[in-house]
Amino acid sequence: MTKEKRIAPSDRELDVLKVFWEIGEASVRDVHKVMSPNGEFAVTTIQTLIRIMADKGLLSVRRDNRTLHYTSLYTPEQAGSRFLHKLFDGAVDQLVLNMIRAEDLSDNDLAKLERLIVESRKAKRKGRKP
Fold first, then answer.
1. Engineered SS bond to 30: which of 11, 26, 49, 102, CB 3.0-4.6 Å?
2. What is the dihedral of CA 68, 19, 56, 41, to 10 degrees?
3. Is 61 strand, coil or helix?
4. Whole-structure pTM over 0.85, yes or no?
């Protein structure tokens, strides 16, 4: 963990971030359509949540006339890293082992994991991120 302050999104904020990770830049109405297709949440509820997230530095804001468009500044990798450090004190092997034990993985899933590990090793040797 770096010395800079780590942003810690709440569970509800992570739900909103997942929408941004899926659709990219979006307005409040765009997010509302995805999160509340049957009107479970008021638009103002989503708007307030997004405004708080922007204030926290989780989202950037771009104005286009009267419409505000937001983009995630918090990445899935940051969320994964936070989870890893919070639950497993940074022990990647323990995270993977727990996930393998918790899920009934098919041979195909295990083979895919093995391929990802091989690709990650190759990328690391070449000085790249996987």
1. 26
2. 80
3. strand
4. no
